[in-house]
Specification:
With 96 residues, the chain is α+β, with helices and mostly antiparallel strands. The chain has a single domain, classed as NE0471 N-terminal domain-like. Helix content is 26%, strand content 28%. The longest helix has 13 residues. The protein is globular and about 35 Å long. The model has no long low-confidence stretch (mean pLDDT 88).
Length: 96
């Protein structure tokens, strides 16, 4: 289980095509966070990020991932999403 209250200290990579951001947390963990669940059918501030072509302009503010339009994502939630995705079993395709 991950300790809550961790902060993002820097962004290492962004990929607007896959809606992912690789970040480093204050405990040294480097995690690639995929945010398709937010940006594939965006609403509100997430939609503004995409309309304005701002995905790659994200930055760290007070330990959270943020965008110039005011969208901020909680680092604890982002880390939980990433860990949940990595724990999901991968399905193999069955051959016909």
């Amino acid at each position: 289980m991950t300790k809550l209250g961790r902060e993002i200290i820097r962004i290492l990579e962004t990929d607007a095509e896959s809606f992912s951001v690789k970040v480093e947390f204050d405990d040294g963990a480097v995690i690639d966070i995929r945010m398709g669940h937010i940006f594939e059918k965006p609403k509100g501030l997430a939609a503004e990020v995409l309309r304005g072509g701002m995905f790659d302009t994200c930055f760290v503010e007070s330990g959270a991932l943020a965008w110039p339009n005011g969208l901020e994502l909680c680092p604890d939630a982002m880390r939980s999403w990433a860990e949940a995705v990595s724990l999901k079993p991968h399905r193999r395709r069955q051959r016909a």
